[in-house]
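Model: Ready when you are.
Researcher: Fold this.
Model:
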Amino acid sequence: MHPQISILVKLQNMDLSIEKVEGSREEYPQRIELMKAELEGRRKTTDAERDKLEALEKERRVKERGLEQEIEGIKKSEERLQTVKTNREYQAALKEIALAKELIGKNEEDILNILEELEVLRKELKEKEKNLNVTCREFERENKELTEKLKKFEKQLSTKKKSREKLLSEVDSEKLKMYENIKDRRQGIAVVSVKDGSCQGCYMDIPPQLYNEVQKGTDLIACPNCNRILYWTNKQ
Protein backbone atom coordinates (compact mmCIF):
# COMPACT_ATOMS: atom_id res chain seq x y z
CA MET A 1 0.00 0.00 0.00
CA HIS A 2 1.21 3.49 -0.85
CA PRO A 3 2.52 5.16 2.36
CA GLN A 4 0.33 8.22 1.84
CA ILE A 5 -2.77 6.06 1.38
CA SER A 6 -1.95 4.26 4.62
CA ILE A 7 -1.86 7.63 6.40
CA LEU A 8 -5.10 8.75 4.70
CA VAL A 9 -6.84 5.55 5.82
CA LYS A 10 -5.73 6.29 9.40
CA LEU A 11 -6.82 9.91 8.98
CA GLN A 12 -10.24 8.85 7.75
CA ASN A 13 -10.68 6.40 10.62
CA MET A 14 -9.70 9.18 13.00
CA ASP A 15 -12.15 11.62 11.37
CA LEU A 16 -14.97 9.09 11.60
CA SER A 17 -14.11 8.43 15.23
CA ILE A 18 -14.08 12.16 15.99
CA GLU A 19 -17.42 12.59 14.20
CA LYS A 20 -18.94 9.79 16.26
CA VAL A 21 -17.69 11.25 19.54
CA GLU A 22 -18.90 14.73 18.56
CA GLY A 23 -22.31 13.29 17.67
CA SER A 24 -22.57 11.62 21.06
CA ARG A 25 -21.35 14.75 22.78
CA GLU A 26 -24.06 16.83 21.11
CA GLU A 27 -26.72 14.30 22.10
CA TYR A 28 -26.14 14.66 25.85
CA PRO A 29 -26.84 18.41 26.18
CA GLN A 30 -30.09 17.81 24.25
CA ARG A 31 -31.05 15.08 26.70
CA ILE A 32 -30.27 17.39 29.61
CA GLU A 33 -32.48 20.10 28.09
CA LEU A 34 -35.33 17.61 27.60
CA MET A 35 -35.05 16.55 31.24
CA LYS A 36 -35.03 20.21 32.32
CA ALA A 37 -38.17 20.83 30.26
CA GLU A 38 -39.91 17.82 31.83
CA LEU A 39 -38.89 18.96 35.31
CA GLU A 40 -40.08 22.51 34.64
CA GLY A 41 -43.39 21.18 33.29
CA ARG A 42 -43.99 19.11 36.43
CA ARG A 43 -43.01 22.07 38.60
CA LYS A 44 -45.46 24.39 36.82
CA THR A 45 -48.25 21.81 37.07
CA THR A 46 -47.57 21.37 40.78
CA ASP A 47 -47.43 25.13 41.38
CA ALA A 48 -50.72 25.59 39.51
CA GLU A 49 -52.33 22.87 41.64
CA ARG A 50 -50.96 24.50 44.80
CA ASP A 51 -52.29 27.91 43.73
CA LYS A 52 -55.69 26.38 43.02
CA LEU A 53 -55.73 24.77 46.45
CA GLU A 54 -54.76 28.03 48.17
CA ALA A 55 -57.48 29.94 46.26
CA LEU A 56 -60.07 27.36 47.29
CA GLU A 57 -58.91 27.51 50.92
CA LYS A 58 -59.30 31.29 50.79
CA GLU A 59 -62.81 30.93 49.34
CA ARG A 60 -63.71 28.47 52.11
CA ARG A 61 -62.52 30.90 54.81
CA VAL A 62 -64.48 33.76 53.24
CA LYS A 63 -67.67 31.67 53.12
CA GLU A 64 -67.19 30.43 56.69
CA ARG A 65 -66.81 34.04 57.92
CA GLY A 66 -69.91 34.99 55.94
CA LEU A 67 -71.77 32.04 57.47
CA GLU A 68 -70.80 33.13 60.98
CA GLN A 69 -72.05 36.64 60.23
CA GLU A 70 -75.33 35.30 58.86
CA ILE A 71 -75.88 33.12 61.93
CA GLU A 72 -75.14 36.10 64.16
CA GLY A 73 -77.61 38.15 62.08
CA ILE A 74 -80.34 35.53 62.64
CA LYS A 75 -79.73 35.66 66.39
CA LYS A 76 -80.18 39.42 66.34
CA SER A 77 -83.31 39.14 64.21
CA GLU A 78 -84.77 36.57 66.60
CA GLU A 79 -84.04 38.88 69.52
CA ARG A 80 -85.85 41.71 67.73
CA LEU A 81 -88.93 39.50 67.48
CA GLN A 82 -89.30 39.92 71.23
CA THR A 83 -89.51 43.69 70.90
CA VAL A 84 -91.65 44.27 67.79
CA LYS A 85 -94.94 46.01 68.47
CA THR A 86 -96.92 45.42 65.29
CA ASN A 87 -97.81 42.36 63.25
CA ARG A 88 -96.30 43.99 60.20
CA GLU A 89 -92.94 44.35 61.92
CA TYR A 90 -93.24 40.78 63.18
CA GLN A 91 -93.90 39.37 59.68
CA ALA A 92 -91.01 41.39 58.24
CA ALA A 93 -88.65 40.03 60.88
CA LEU A 94 -89.82 36.46 60.18
CA LYS A 95 -89.24 36.97 56.45
CA GLU A 96 -85.76 38.34 57.14
CA ILE A 97 -84.95 35.29 59.29
CA ALA A 98 -86.28 32.88 56.63
CA LEU A 99 -84.19 34.50 53.91
CA ALA A 100 -81.10 34.42 56.13
CA LYS A 101 -81.65 30.74 56.92
CA GLU A 102 -82.06 30.01 53.20
CA LEU A 103 -78.79 31.81 52.52
CA ILE A 104 -77.12 29.92 55.37
CA GLY A 105 -78.29 26.62 53.88
CA LYS A 106 -76.82 27.56 50.51
CA ASN A 107 -73.54 28.66 52.06
CA GLU A 108 -73.32 25.49 54.12
CA GLU A 109 -73.83 23.44 50.94
CA ASP A 110 -71.17 25.51 49.15
CA ILE A 111 -68.72 24.96 52.01
CA LEU A 112 -69.34 21.20 51.96
CA ASN A 113 -68.69 21.14 48.20
CA ILE A 114 -65.51 23.13 48.71
CA LEU A 115 -64.36 20.76 51.46
CA GLU A 116 -64.93 17.79 49.15
CA GLU A 117 -63.03 19.50 46.36
CA LEU A 118 -60.24 20.42 48.77
CA GLU A 119 -59.88 16.79 49.80
CA VAL A 120 -59.51 15.72 46.15
CA LEU A 121 -57.07 18.55 45.42
CA ARG A 122 -54.91 17.74 48.45
CA LYS A 123 -54.57 14.14 47.27
CA GLU A 124 -53.75 15.27 43.72
CA LEU A 125 -51.24 17.82 44.99
CA LYS A 126 -49.59 15.24 47.22
CA GLU A 127 -49.20 12.91 44.22
CA LYS A 128 -47.87 15.70 42.01
CA GLU A 129 -45.38 16.77 44.68
CA LYS A 130 -44.25 13.16 44.99
CA ASN A 131 -43.80 12.90 41.21
CA LEU A 132 -41.96 16.22 41.20
CA ASN A 133 -39.56 15.04 43.88
CA VAL A 134 -38.92 11.82 41.93
CA THR A 135 -38.30 13.82 38.75
CA CYS A 136 -35.93 16.16 40.63
CA ARG A 137 -33.91 13.23 41.96
CA GLU A 138 -33.81 11.58 38.52
CA PHE A 139 -32.71 14.84 36.91
CA GLU A 140 -29.95 15.38 39.46
CA ARG A 141 -28.70 11.82 39.00
CA GLU A 142 -28.86 11.79 35.20
CA ASN A 143 -27.51 15.32 34.91
CA LYS A 144 -24.50 14.31 36.98
CA GLU A 145 -23.94 11.17 34.87
CA LEU A 146 -24.30 13.04 31.57
CA THR A 147 -22.02 15.84 32.75
CA GLU A 148 -19.36 13.27 33.62
CA LYS A 149 -19.77 11.64 30.22
CA LEU A 150 -19.45 15.02 28.52
CA LYS A 151 -16.16 15.59 30.33
CA LYS A 152 -14.92 12.20 29.09
CA PHE A 153 -15.98 13.04 25.54
CA GLU A 154 -14.16 16.36 25.72
CA LYS A 155 -11.05 14.55 26.87
CA GLN A 156 -11.39 11.95 24.10
CA LEU A 157 -11.88 14.67 21.50
CA SER A 158 -8.84 16.53 22.69
CA THR A 159 -6.71 13.37 22.43
CA LYS A 160 -8.11 12.40 19.04
CA LYS A 161 -7.67 15.89 17.59
CA LYS A 162 -4.05 15.93 18.69
CA SER A 163 -3.54 12.57 16.97
CA ARG A 164 -5.25 13.97 13.88
CA GLU A 165 -2.91 16.94 13.81
CA LYS A 166 0.02 14.55 13.88
CA LEU A 167 -1.41 12.62 10.92
CA LEU A 168 -2.03 15.84 9.00
CA SER A 169 1.63 16.73 9.33
CA GLU A 170 2.50 13.46 7.59
CA VAL A 171 0.22 13.96 4.57
CA ASP A 172 1.32 15.67 1.38
CA SER A 173 -0.59 18.96 1.00
CA GLU A 174 -1.98 18.11 -2.44
CA LYS A 175 -3.13 14.68 -1.33
CA LEU A 176 -4.68 16.18 1.80
CA LYS A 177 -6.58 18.70 -0.32
CA MET A 178 -7.81 15.85 -2.52
CA TYR A 179 -8.87 13.88 0.57
CA GLU A 180 -10.76 16.82 2.09
CA ASN A 181 -12.57 17.64 -1.15
CA ILE A 182 -13.73 14.05 -1.66
CA LYS A 183 -14.73 13.72 1.99
CA ASP A 184 -16.92 16.83 1.71
CA ARG A 185 -18.66 15.49 -1.40
CA ARG A 186 -19.01 11.86 -0.28
CA GLN A 187 -20.58 11.98 3.19
CA GLY A 188 -17.26 11.89 5.00
CA ILE A 189 -15.88 8.78 3.22
CA ALA A 190 -12.94 9.65 0.97
CA VAL A 191 -10.86 6.46 1.07
CA VAL A 192 -12.31 2.99 0.39
CA SER A 193 -10.95 -0.46 -0.26
CA VAL A 194 -11.31 -2.50 -3.41
CA LYS A 195 -12.63 -6.00 -2.97
CA ASP A 196 -13.05 -8.58 -5.73
CA GLY A 197 -12.60 -5.85 -8.30
CA SER A 198 -15.35 -3.65 -6.84
CA CYS A 199 -15.11 -0.27 -5.13
CA GLN A 200 -16.47 -0.63 -1.59
CA GLY A 201 -17.71 2.96 -1.66
CA CYS A 202 -20.12 2.76 -4.59
CA TYR A 203 -19.94 -1.03 -5.13
CA MET A 204 -19.29 -0.60 -8.85
CA ASP A 205 -16.77 -2.76 -10.70
CA ILE A 206 -13.59 -1.00 -11.72
CA PRO A 207 -11.60 -1.79 -14.91
CA PRO A 208 -9.18 -4.73 -14.49
CA GLN A 209 -6.15 -2.59 -15.43
CA LEU A 210 -7.12 -0.03 -12.81
CA TYR A 211 -7.60 -2.79 -10.26
CA ASN A 212 -4.06 -3.98 -10.98
CA GLU A 213 -2.73 -0.46 -10.44
CA VAL A 214 -4.57 -0.22 -7.13
CA GLN A 215 -3.04 -3.52 -6.00
CA LYS A 216 0.43 -2.25 -6.82
CA GLY A 217 -0.13 0.73 -4.55
CA THR A 218 2.37 2.95 -6.31
CA ASP A 219 0.11 5.99 -6.55
CA LEU A 220 -3.24 7.39 -5.42
CA ILE A 221 -5.99 6.15 -7.73
CA ALA A 222 -9.58 7.35 -7.69
CA CYS A 223 -12.66 5.27 -8.44
CA PRO A 224 -13.91 6.24 -11.94
CA ASN A 225 -17.48 6.16 -10.65
CA CYS A 226 -17.50 7.83 -7.20
CA ASN A 227 -14.04 9.45 -7.28
CA ARG A 228 -13.09 8.07 -3.87
CA ILE A 229 -9.44 7.16 -3.29
CA LEU A 230 -8.97 3.41 -3.66
CA TYR A 231 -6.67 1.08 -1.79
CA TRP A 232 -6.14 -2.64 -1.72
CA THR A 233 -5.03 -4.91 1.07
CA ASN A 234 -4.36 -8.61 0.92
CA LYS A 235 -6.15 -8.96 4.29
CA GLN A 236 -9.53 -9.36 2.61
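Researcher: Now this one.
Model:
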Amino acid sequence: MMVLFALLGLLVGALTNLLATSLVHRGRPTLPTCTSCARVRPWSQWISLPSALLRRARCPHCDARIGIRHPLVELGLAAAYAYLWWLLAPSPTLIPALYYTAVLAIVLVTDLEHRIIPNTIVFPAIAFAAAVSLYHAEWWSGLLGGAVLLIPFVIAKVVGSLLFGHGSLGGGDLKLALFVGLMTGFPLALLALVLATGLGALVALALLITGRKGLLDAVPYGPFLVVGGWVAMVWGEQILSILIRVN
Protein backbone atom coordinates (compact mmCIF):
# COMPACT_ATOMS: atom_id res chain seq x y z
CA MET A 1 0.00 0.00 0.00
CA MET A 2 2.86 2.39 0.66
CA VAL A 3 4.13 1.74 -2.86
CA LEU A 4 0.66 2.34 -4.29
CA PHE A 5 0.32 5.60 -2.39
CA ALA A 6 3.81 6.62 -3.50
CA LEU A 7 2.72 6.05 -7.11
CA LEU A 8 -0.44 8.05 -6.42
CA GLY A 9 1.72 10.85 -5.03
CA LEU A 10 3.89 10.70 -8.16
CA LEU A 11 0.81 11.16 -10.35
CA VAL A 12 -0.49 13.97 -8.13
CA GLY A 13 2.96 15.55 -8.36
CA ALA A 14 2.72 15.52 -12.15
CA LEU A 15 -0.73 17.11 -11.90
CA THR A 16 0.64 19.66 -9.44
CA ASN A 17 3.37 20.63 -11.92
CA LEU A 18 0.78 20.90 -14.68
CA LEU A 19 -1.55 23.15 -12.67
CA ALA A 20 1.27 25.27 -11.23
CA THR A 21 2.42 26.04 -14.78
CA SER A 22 -0.83 26.24 -16.73
CA LEU A 23 -2.84 28.26 -14.20
CA VAL A 24 -0.14 30.91 -13.98
CA HIS A 25 0.66 31.17 -17.70
CA ARG A 26 -2.77 30.47 -19.22
CA GLY A 27 -5.26 30.87 -16.38
CA ARG A 28 -6.75 27.42 -16.91
CA PRO A 29 -5.63 23.77 -16.92
CA THR A 30 -4.08 22.62 -20.19
CA LEU A 31 -2.10 19.66 -21.43
CA PRO A 32 1.56 19.70 -20.33
CA THR A 33 3.30 22.21 -22.57
CA CYS A 34 6.80 23.59 -22.89
CA THR A 35 7.06 27.05 -21.34
CA SER A 36 9.58 28.06 -24.03
CA CYS A 37 7.87 27.06 -27.28
CA ALA A 38 4.32 26.47 -25.91
CA ARG A 39 4.03 23.13 -27.74
CA VAL A 40 2.50 20.12 -26.02
CA ARG A 41 5.08 17.80 -24.55
CA PRO A 42 5.00 14.11 -25.60
CA TRP A 43 3.04 11.85 -23.25
CA SER A 44 6.28 10.17 -22.15
CA GLN A 45 7.26 13.47 -20.47
CA TRP A 46 3.95 14.16 -18.76
CA ILE A 47 5.60 12.62 -15.70
CA SER A 48 9.03 14.21 -15.66
CA LEU A 49 10.84 11.92 -13.24
CA PRO A 50 11.63 9.11 -15.75
CA SER A 51 12.98 11.67 -18.24
CA ALA A 52 15.08 13.28 -15.52
CA LEU A 53 16.53 9.92 -14.45
CA LEU A 54 17.34 9.09 -18.08
CA ARG A 55 18.81 12.58 -18.62
CA ARG A 56 16.29 13.34 -21.34
CA ALA A 57 14.56 16.19 -19.54
CA ARG A 58 14.43 18.45 -22.58
CA CYS A 59 11.66 19.58 -24.89
CA PRO A 60 11.87 17.52 -28.10
CA HIS A 61 10.65 20.51 -30.11
CA CYS A 62 12.93 23.36 -28.95
CA ASP A 63 15.46 21.51 -26.74
CA ALA A 64 14.61 23.70 -23.72
CA ARG A 65 15.42 22.02 -20.42
CA ILE A 66 12.58 20.84 -18.19
CA GLY A 67 13.22 22.49 -14.84
CA ILE A 68 14.42 20.53 -11.82
CA ARG A 69 11.27 21.64 -10.00
CA HIS A 70 9.21 19.04 -11.88
CA PRO A 71 10.93 15.85 -10.68
CA LEU A 72 11.45 17.32 -7.21
CA VAL A 73 7.72 17.99 -6.78
CA GLU A 74 6.88 14.49 -8.00
CA LEU A 75 9.40 12.88 -5.65
CA GLY A 76 8.29 15.04 -2.74
CA LEU A 77 4.61 14.20 -3.14
CA ALA A 78 5.36 10.52 -3.68
CA ALA A 79 7.22 10.47 -0.34
CA ALA A 80 4.55 12.59 1.39
CA TYR A 81 1.67 10.40 0.19
CA ALA A 82 3.40 7.18 1.24
CA TYR A 83 4.15 8.68 4.65
CA LEU A 84 0.61 9.97 5.12
CA TRP A 85 -0.80 6.51 4.39
CA TRP A 86 1.60 4.97 6.90
CA LEU A 87 0.74 7.62 9.51
CA LEU A 88 -3.02 8.03 9.09
CA ALA A 89 -4.55 4.93 7.44
CA PRO A 90 -7.27 3.83 7.95
CA SER A 91 -8.29 7.10 9.63
CA PRO A 92 -10.93 9.23 7.84
CA THR A 93 -8.47 12.12 8.06
CA LEU A 94 -6.28 10.49 5.39
CA ILE A 95 -8.17 11.75 2.31
CA PRO A 96 -8.41 15.38 3.53
CA ALA A 97 -4.69 15.26 4.39
CA LEU A 98 -3.84 14.03 0.89
CA TYR A 99 -5.93 16.80 -0.66
CA TYR A 100 -4.48 19.49 1.61
CA THR A 101 -0.95 18.32 0.79
CA ALA A 102 -1.59 18.66 -2.96
CA VAL A 103 -3.08 22.14 -2.52
CA LEU A 104 -0.15 23.29 -0.40
CA ALA A 105 2.30 21.91 -2.98
CA ILE A 106 0.68 23.93 -5.77
CA VAL A 107 0.69 27.08 -3.63
CA LEU A 108 4.33 26.52 -2.69
CA VAL A 109 5.40 26.31 -6.34
CA THR A 110 3.34 29.23 -7.67
CA ASP A 111 4.23 31.56 -4.80
CA LEU A 112 7.95 30.78 -4.97
CA GLU A 113 8.13 31.12 -8.74
CA HIS A 114 5.60 33.86 -9.49
CA ARG A 115 4.40 35.38 -6.17
CA ILE A 116 0.90 34.12 -7.11
CA ILE A 117 -1.58 32.03 -5.07
CA PRO A 118 -4.24 31.00 -7.63
CA ASN A 119 -7.84 31.65 -6.61
CA THR A 120 -8.90 28.62 -8.65
CA ILE A 121 -6.95 26.47 -6.19
CA VAL A 122 -7.36 28.21 -2.85
CA PHE A 123 -11.10 29.03 -3.00
CA PRO A 124 -12.22 25.38 -3.50
CA ALA A 125 -9.69 24.39 -0.83
CA ILE A 126 -11.24 26.86 1.63
CA ALA A 127 -14.72 25.52 0.90
CA PHE A 128 -13.56 21.91 1.30
CA ALA A 129 -11.72 22.62 4.57
CA ALA A 130 -14.76 24.45 5.97
CA ALA A 131 -17.03 21.53 5.03
CA VAL A 132 -14.66 19.01 6.64
CA SER A 133 -14.45 21.06 9.84
CA LEU A 134 -18.24 21.27 10.08
CA TYR A 135 -18.49 17.50 9.69
CA HIS A 136 -16.50 16.87 12.88
CA ALA A 137 -18.00 16.85 16.36
CA GLU A 138 -15.81 19.81 17.35
CA TRP A 139 -17.05 21.82 14.36
CA TRP A 140 -16.01 25.09 15.95
CA SER A 141 -12.32 24.09 15.90
CA GLY A 142 -11.81 24.68 12.19
CA LEU A 143 -13.76 27.95 12.19
CA LEU A 144 -11.83 29.22 15.20
CA GLY A 145 -8.57 28.12 13.59
CA GLY A 146 -9.45 30.06 10.45
CA ALA A 147 -10.15 33.18 12.48
CA VAL A 148 -6.99 32.75 14.56
CA LEU A 149 -4.83 32.75 11.45
CA LEU A 150 -6.78 35.22 9.34
CA ILE A 151 -7.03 38.05 11.89
CA PRO A 152 -3.24 38.50 12.40
CA PHE A 153 -2.75 38.55 8.63
CA VAL A 154 -5.46 41.17 8.17
CA ILE A 155 -3.81 43.31 10.85
CA ALA A 156 -0.39 42.79 9.24
CA LYS A 157 -1.77 43.81 5.84
CA VAL A 158 -3.35 47.00 7.21
CA VAL A 159 -0.24 47.98 9.18
CA GLY A 160 2.07 47.04 6.31
CA SER A 161 0.05 49.10 3.85
CA LEU A 162 0.26 52.12 6.16
CA LEU A 163 4.01 51.76 6.69
CA PHE A 164 5.28 50.43 3.37
CA GLY A 165 2.46 51.07 0.91
CA HIS A 166 0.02 48.86 -0.95
CA GLY A 167 1.19 45.34 -1.69
CA SER A 168 3.30 44.74 1.41
CA LEU A 169 1.19 41.65 2.03
CA GLY A 170 -0.82 40.14 -0.79
CA GLY A 171 -4.47 39.17 -0.70
CA GLY A 172 -3.42 35.63 -1.58
CA ASP A 173 -1.61 35.35 1.76
CA LEU A 174 -4.85 36.20 3.57
CA LYS A 175 -6.77 33.51 1.69
CA LEU A 176 -3.97 31.01 2.32
CA ALA A 177 -4.00 31.87 6.04
CA LEU A 178 -7.75 31.24 6.19
CA PHE A 179 -7.32 27.90 4.43
CA VAL A 180 -4.48 26.76 6.70
CA GLY A 181 -6.47 27.79 9.78
CA LEU A 182 -9.53 25.83 8.64
CA MET A 183 -7.31 22.90 7.70
CA THR A 184 -5.47 22.64 11.02
CA GLY A 185 -8.17 23.87 13.40
CA PHE A 186 -7.64 25.26 16.87
CA PRO A 187 -5.18 25.17 18.62
CA LEU A 188 -2.97 23.78 15.83
CA ALA A 189 -3.55 26.98 13.84
CA LEU A 190 -1.57 28.81 16.52
CA LEU A 191 1.27 26.35 16.09
CA ALA A 192 1.16 26.84 12.31
CA LEU A 193 1.37 30.62 12.83
CA VAL A 194 4.32 30.33 15.21
CA LEU A 195 6.18 27.94 12.91
CA ALA A 196 5.54 30.08 9.82
CA THR A 197 6.56 33.29 11.59
CA GLY A 198 9.69 31.74 13.06
CA LEU A 199 10.78 30.18 9.80
CA GLY A 200 10.05 33.38 7.90
CA ALA A 201 12.11 35.42 10.38
CA LEU A 202 15.07 33.03 10.13
CA VAL A 203 15.04 33.03 6.34
CA ALA A 204 14.64 36.82 6.16
CA LEU A 205 17.56 37.25 8.58
CA ALA A 206 19.71 34.90 6.52
CA LEU A 207 18.87 36.83 3.33
CA LEU A 208 19.74 40.11 5.03
CA ILE A 209 23.05 38.81 6.37
CA THR A 210 24.06 37.40 3.00
CA GLY A 211 23.03 40.61 1.24
CA ARG A 212 20.53 38.88 -1.06
CA LYS A 213 17.68 41.03 0.27
CA GLY A 214 17.42 44.51 1.77
CA LEU A 215 15.25 45.72 4.61
CA LEU A 216 12.55 46.96 2.24
CA ASP A 217 12.68 44.02 -0.18
CA ALA A 218 9.61 41.79 -0.25
CA VAL A 219 9.88 38.10 0.62
CA PRO A 220 6.96 35.78 -0.27
CA TYR A 221 5.33 34.65 2.97
CA GLY A 222 3.19 31.90 1.47
CA PRO A 223 5.90 29.22 1.46
CA PHE A 224 6.50 29.66 5.21
CA LEU A 225 2.78 29.34 5.89
CA VAL A 226 2.68 26.24 3.69
CA VAL A 227 5.48 24.59 5.68
CA GLY A 228 4.06 25.67 9.04
CA GLY A 229 0.57 24.48 8.10
CA TRP A 230 1.72 21.09 6.83
CA VAL A 231 3.93 20.46 9.88
CA ALA A 232 1.06 21.45 12.19
CA MET A 233 -1.35 19.19 10.31
CA VAL A 234 0.94 16.14 10.37
CA TRP A 235 2.90 16.45 13.62
CA GLY A 236 1.04 19.21 15.47
CA GLU A 237 -0.52 17.00 18.16
CA GLN A 238 2.85 15.43 18.99
CA ILE A 239 4.57 18.82 19.10
CA LEU A 240 1.94 20.27 21.42
CA SER A 241 2.10 17.24 23.73
CA ILE A 242 5.90 17.62 23.96
CA LEU A 243 5.57 21.33 24.75
CA ILE A 244 2.96 20.61 27.42
CA ARG A 245 5.19 17.98 29.08
CA VAL A 246 8.21 20.30 29.01
CA ASN A 247 6.24 23.11 30.63
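Researcher: Key takeaway?
Model: Residues 113-247 form one domain.
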